[in-house]
Amino acid sequence: MAEDLTIVRSTDKKEQYLSLIPQIEALLYGEADLIANLANVSAALKEQFKWFWVGFYLVKGDALVLGPFQGPVACTRINKGKGVCGAAWEQAKTLTVPDVEAFPGHIACSSLSRSEIVIPIFYNDRIVGVLDVDSEELDQFDQTDAQYLEQIVKLLQF
User: Fold this and answer.
1) Fewest C-beta atoms under 10 Å: which of 20, 43, 60, 141?
2) What's the CA gap between 48 and 157, in Å, rounded?
3) Could you tell me whether strands 95-97 and 77-79 are parallel, antiparallel, or unpaired per DSSP bridges?
4) pTM
5) Where are the domains of the chain?
6) Taking the chain, what is the end-to-end CA distance rounded to the nearest angstrom?
7) Per-block average pLDDT, block size 10, for the chain (158 residues)?
8) 27: closest CA among 9, 49, 4?
């Protein structure tokens, strides 16, 4: 298990992800506890990219319930179809939102969040949770983030 991260300070997101993904794999290797793994993935992403908020919501019944995260306190429950997280769950696809204020039904857990990306987590062809990432900057996320964050959530064992 890796105990420290090697942080790559580069303006090239792809380079950052390519350095971080093997380190996340090392963090997850041999650890079966889901909560521990979600916590470490949140921390690794927050450390590498310095995003405002990084965390997981897990499907429990008819709601997404807050899981491990890094950042300020967050909304505890999100219904299917509500906000960016609930919409990503309902639509079963990654959503990238350049300006959360322009997203219909956006849930403002923090007024400091300006852009967001949400990645659904699939297990046995059903969504079991989402990875939610918020930035204080507008238009922070793009296809590169979507590609590599989708790859990261596939590393998780539910």
Assistant:
1) 60
2) 22
3) unpaired
4) 0.95
5) 13-153
6) 19
7) 77 95 95 97 97 98 97 95 96 97 83 94 96 97 98 95
8) 4
